[in-house]
Every structure is written in C-alpha cells, then in structure tokens.
Amino acid sequence: MSFQKIRALLFACLLTAGCAYAQNRANFPWWNSPVAANIGLSDGQNQRIRQIVRSYRSRLFDARNNVQKAEGDLEDLLNDPNVNVQAARPVIERLAAARAESSRVFLEMSVQLRGVLTLDQWRELVKRWDEMKRKKPADTQVEP
Q1: Residue 48 has pLDDT above 70, yes or no
Q2: 0.70 exceeded by pTM
Q3: Reported confidence tier of residue 137, pLDDT bands at 50, 70, 90
Q4: Maximum distance among all alpha carbons in the chain?
Q5: Would you state the torsion angle of the CA atoms of residues 47, 53, 58, 60, taken in this order, to the nearest 10 degrees?
C-alpha cells in the first residue's frame, strides 16, 4: 500500500472518529425525532433540512447498498472451506472503501445539516443526544 493511500486512510479514520463524536451520536436521523422538537427550528430551517436530506437520500442508499454487497462478498469468502487470502484482499479493500464512502457521504450531509442550525440549537441537540444515550441502557435492560 502506498504512502498516499495510508495517509488518506488515516485521514478518513481521524475525520470519521472526530466527526462521529460531534455528529449523530444517537445513530438515528435527529431531524425526524423528538430530540429535535422544541429547539426553535424555524419553518425555513425545517424546509432546508428536508431539502438537504432529500438531496443526499439516493447517495446514502447507494453507499449503504455497496457496503452490504461487499460485506456479503466477504462473508462468502469467509464461509468457504478453503479460504483464499489472495482472493480476500480485493474484497477487503472494496469493503473498506465502501464503508469509508458511506461515512463520508453521511458526514458531508451532517455538516450541511449543522450549517442550518444556530450554535445554540446545535448545543441543545448535543445535550439531548447525550441525555438520551445515558438513558438508553436503562431503558433496554430486561428484568429477570
């Protein structure tokens, strides 16, 4: 692997890790959730958010489908009784690239969505995500 590829991969990993913390922490579309209720979004902001999501929808679906296809190909290789390491390498590369592209498209959309919000609205969303994340484990526990 060339130095440029390694550098690009490291950059993508750092970008994904850094942005993931500040982005959709609850792993769901905040713009369609109760988390976004009552943060003071104007009609114009809601309209712009819907436009951005609509403009990314097909790219997000395509990216997710490419990840699923590559995961399926890797699963087939791993389930083969005679695992071929050489045949696995391009599949692994395709899966890594598909995951990176999926993250890139989502993060690009997320940055555009963040640009629609005021700083106070963004901080309120982050606060609500953190609160929901803290509550979630307790909500999903099953009593004996």
Answers
A1: yes
A2: no
A3: low
A4: 59
A5: 180
SS3 label, residue 111 = helix
Domain architecture of the chain: domains with CATH: 3-126 (1.20.120)
> Chain-wide mean pLDDT for the chain?
79
How many residues are recorded in the chain?
144
Residues near 107 by beta carbon (within 8 Å), at least 6 away in sequence: 15, 16, 19, 20, 23
d(CA 113, CA 85): 41
Task: Report whether 66 contacts 133 (CB < 8 A).
Answer: no
Tell me how far apart the alpha carbons of residues 129 and 23 are, in angstroms, rounded to a whole number.
10
Report whether 30 contacts 118 (CB < 8 A). Answer: no
The token duo for 54 is 């609509």
Burial label for 17, CB within 10 Å (0-12, 13-18, 19+), is exposed
